[in-house]
Amino acid sequence: MANEQTDKAQDLEQEQIEQTQTDAEHHAEAGIEDLKAHISKLEESLKLEKARAANAIYEAEKVKERLEREAEAAKKFALEKFTKGLLDSVDNLERAIAAAGEEKTPLLEGIELTLKSLLTTLEKHGVIAVDTQNGFNAEIHQAVGIDPQAKAGEIGNVLQKGYTLSGRLLRPAMVTVGQ
Q1: Phi and psi dihedrals of 131, rounded to 5?
Q2: CA torsion sign, 130 to 133 to 136 to 137?
Q3: Which CDD domains match (predicted)?
Q4: Are 92 and 70 contained in the same domain?
Q5: Which of 60, 127, 133, 160 is surrounded by the most beta carbons within 10 Å?
Q6: Per-residue pLDDT band at 26 (split at 50, 70, 90)
Q7: Cα–Cα–Cα angle for 149, 150, 154, rounded to 5 degrees
Q8: Residues 21, 71 share a domain
Q9: How far is residue 179's CA from residue 44's CA, in Å, rounded to a whole number?
Q10: Closest CA to 111 of 99, 129, 126
Q11: Same structural domain, 43 and 103
Q12: Can you give the chain as a three-state secondary structure string?
């Protein structure tokens, strides 16, 4: 009887061990499935975050490029108002030279050298006089009157020179045009 009880106890113990192993295997399988699902979620989350990071980098590059373009344009045209003010001085020096006539005096030579120096400095910074030799162009010339001696579409007299700054019109040339 003692052997029977011992056998029963061993059988019961063996069944419990087998049950525990079966439960552990089921639990392990369930745990593996949970881990696989969790890994899948993490991979999807990683893909989303990578896409967001790539988008943020792309946007930052676009902002950087835009700011560089704007800074370049600002540098290029920052002197626009200042240059327009200098053009009045250029006009006044040219009027003084025209008023002096043909007589060469030291004062006139000084005015001419000052004008030449000012124009050279303006050219170094991208300020160029508008062409008035190749006919009327409404984009760079402002017609303020009709010149009866000029041919149709040709510029008769230049009343005030026009200038551009780095290709942008600062001031149109004021001209008279033939009919």
Answers
A1: -70, 125
A2: negative
A3: GrpE (cd00446)
A4: no
A5: 127
A6: low
A7: 175
A8: yes
A9: 75
A10: 99
A11: no
A12: CHHHHHHHHHHHHHHHHHHHHHHHHHHHHHHHHHHHHHHHHHHHHHHHHHHHHHHHHHHHHHHHHHHHHHHHHHHHHCCHHHHHHHHHHHHHHHHHHHHHCCCCCHHHHHHHHHHHHHHHHHHHCCEEECCCCCCCCCCCEEEEEECCCCCECCEEEEEECCEEECCEEEECEEEEEEC
95 plus 158 within the same structural domain: yes
CATH for 111? 2.30.22.10
| Of 54, 77, 100, the domain-final residue | 77
**Nearest-angstrom CA–CA distance, 31 and 43:** 18
Mean pLDDT of the 102-115 span = 91
> Span 150-168, mean pLDDT?
86
Give residue 95's Cα distance to chain centre.
41
Q: Which structural domain, as residue segments, surrounds residue 101?
A: 79-177
Instruction: Record the tokens describing residue 170, joined without a space.
Output: 């600062």
Look at the chain and report how many structural domains it folds into: 2
69 and 59 fall within a common domain: yes
Mean pLDDT value across the chain: 86
Give the pLDDT confidence of 54-87 residue by residue, as tens digits: 999 999 999 999 999 999 888 777 788 888 889 9
Distances (CA, A) of 112 to 83, 100, 117: 19, 11, 9
User: Residue 17 has which token pair?
Assistant: 């061990």
